[in-house]
Amino acid sequence: MSLVYDDDERMLLDAARDFLRAESPVSALRALRDSADATGFSRELWASMAGMGWAGLLVPEAHGGLGFAHMGAGIVCEQMGRTLCASPFVSSAVLGVSLLKLAAREEQQAALLPRVVAGEHLLALAVDESPRHDPLAIATRATSADGGFVLDGEKRFVIDGHSADTLIVVARSAGAAGEAHGISLFQVDAGTPGLTVERHVMADSRNAATIRLQGVRVSQDALIGTLHGGFAALEHALDVARCCAAAELLGVATEVFERTVEYLRQRKQFGRIIGEFQGLQHRAAVLFCELELARSAVLGALRAADGNDGSFAAAASLAKARATEVATLAANEAVQMHGGIGMTDDIDIGLFMKRAAALRTWLGDAYYHTHRYATLAGY
After folding, report:
1. Does the model's pTM come out above 0.70?
2. DSSP-derived pairing of the beta strands 223-224 and 166-172
3. Backbone conformation region of residue 215, classed left if phi is above 0, alpha if psi is from -120 to 50, else beta
4. DSSP class of residue 131?
5. How far apart are the C-alpha atoms of 213 and 217, rounded to whole Å?
6. Are residues 141 and 169 in the same domain?
7. Residue 185 — very low, low, confident or very high, per pLDDT cuts 50/70/90?
8. Closest by CA position to 370, among listed 302, 299, 320, 326
9. Rounded to 5 degrees, what angle do the CA atoms 314, 317, 323 make?
10. Cβ(94)–Cβ(58) under 8 Å?
11. Whether residues 370 and 236 fall in one domain
12. Co-location of 213 and 258 in the same domain
């Protein structure tokens, strides 16, 4: 397994880095936050990303996409982490697209994927129902009725749910909470009667939503995949998104590390550059080593996503757990080494800390994935 980029991946990295630094710097997130923007991201920016092919990175060429390996999505996410870019990339172009590729019928893919590629249609996954991530704890019910289904339940922490044109709702059509059998996936369009969406602005200034379904009626054609058998596709798509979240956390950690090292080289205290103090040098060296270990875990997981050796689930949990811990460490160290200004809004370090905190819990925190990794290993 190669943990270095090939030529195509290197070109994508360079293009993503240059584009995001120019078009979506940290100041763009500040502007969205300070203006209380109703969408929470720039639709013009998203259109530009779609024009560059990012919305179709994981979409097969048959549906107008690039059919790029999963490493490409991770590369884009890492660079987004470095500029704190706000976009529906992971929710729509990664998580939503992955589920449609894995489970949707050909006619569903043909109807939705080309519109996603064009940047004209946004997807969001409604899965979690409690403050902690648990894709097996599904209580939302899907009841057969009049040749279709009626959905009842509530979903929390639906990233970009307020702006999605189509929600992919995870519901239980059989069995009880905690069981994999009986989980089904449904396509629910925005504006469907009985569907209410409550937007929430998170600590990192991005958006999530609470989704309530009260007697929401959908047709038989709204079923994605097989009835009662949606969990395998759901878990795989979640693992792809977990890898991308880990890549974004890696970008956050790398950026705050580099900014902190630069600050250590400039800041003077007691007549000396503070980077000359051995205690700070040791802390920076430890953080650098942790960053490199996390990078290996993230790249390994992204490579495993394209393999068929059965290692992907464990690799995804390892990557998410390690990247979560390292981004938390990097943000905390950055705040401390910047001294009193580290917690002020005048500099950007606090914004990176908030992004790390939001990503830390999304799709499972380090405790969730450490437990999952051990379980997959047979412990």
Report:
1. yes
2. unpaired
3. left
4. S
5. 9
6. yes
7. very high
8. 320
9. 135
10. yes
11. yes
12. no
Q: What sign for the dihedral angle of Cα 345, 361, 371, 292?
A: negative
* CA triple 59-60-66, angle to 5 deg: 70
> Residues 335, 282: one domain?
yes
Nearest to 243 by CA among 297, 307, 320, 300: 320
Write the pLDDT tens digit of every residue in 97-125: 999 999 999 999 999 999 999 999 999 99
Q: What tokens appear for 68 in the block?
A: 């790029």
Question: Is residue 327 situated within a structural domain?
Answer: yes
Letter for the amino acid at 168? I
Q: What is the DSSP letter of 36?
A: T
175: in domain: yes
Question: How many Å apart are CA 330 and CA 291, to the nearest integer?
Answer: 9
Domain boundary among 121, 147, 169: 121
CATH number for 326 = 1.20.140.10
Cα 16 to Cα 77: distance, rounded to the nearest angstrom: 9
Residues 167 and 207 in one domain: yes
Encode pLDDT of 230-252 as tens digits.
999 999 999 999 999 999 999 99
- CATH number where 155 lies: 2.40.110.10
Report DSSP letters for 142-209, one per residue. EEEETTEEEEEEEEEEEETTTT-SEEEEEEESSS-TT-STTEEEEEEETT-TTEEEEEEE-TTS-EEE
Residue pair 130/198 in contact (Cβ under 8 Å)? The answer is no
How many other C-beta atoms lie within 10 A of the C-beta of residue 3? 12
Looking at residue 229, what DSSP letter applies?
B
Whole-number pLDDT of residue 346? 85
CA-based end-to-end distance of the chain: 26
Torsion angle (degrees, nearest 10) of CA 210, 215, 218, 223? 70
In a domain, 308, yes or no: yes
Domain interval for residue 85: 7-121
Question: Tokens 């996409």 map to which residue?
Answer: 65
Is the domain of 48 the same as that of 16? yes
Q: What pLDDT score was predicted for residue 268?
A: 80
